[in-house]
Amino acid sequence: MEPSAGSVGGPGPLLERVFERIHRESMQGLPLVNPALRVRAVGFRRLADAGRWVGVLVTPWFMNLMVLSDGTRPLPEAATGERVTLRFPSGAYRFTAGEVEEVGRYLFCSLASPVHCFPDAETAERTAAEVMELLLRAPEGAQEAPAPDPGRRGLLGLGRCARRAEAGA
């Protein structure tokens, strides 16, 4: 899957507006919120051959890999909360269907929740950018045989953060 050349922007600004509103209206003061983080859409790219936008949404309460339709093809059929598997150059990952009125249907793969392991917004956003690079990179020597799925958090470099977050839960 190759990102298209015109992949700047996409759903990022809309996701930021919607999730900033959710943060203001529903998340203030909750213990799972990391006040050092902000809502940012990171690294969104249009995968023209798949008809999808893919990127990472960082919020003060989660970091999710997000997939939205680019309007040329619908997302796989799945009711909200149902899971589907999507394949990327780095492997296959399980996504959950979600929907927010202003955004519409989307698929998400949780990378970290809660996100207390990130000391500041810059670290979280840098990690999100690294996730996007790893997601779209095929493993060395994987041209002939599909690589085994090492798990989304292990492959995407969030194993330490995820283990720390899960241990605290």
Automatic annotation (TrEMBL):
It holds the Pfam family NiFe-hyd_HybE. Transmembrane segments: none annotated. It comes from the Bacteria. Gene3D superfamilies: [NiFe]-hydrogenase assembly chaperone, HybE. InterPro entries: NiFe-hyd_HybE (IPR023994), NiFe-hyd_HybE_sf (IPR038530). Belongs to the HupJ family. NCBIfam families: hydrog_HybE (TIGR03993). This is [NiFe] hydrogenase assembly HybE family chaperone. It comes from Inmirania thermothiophila.
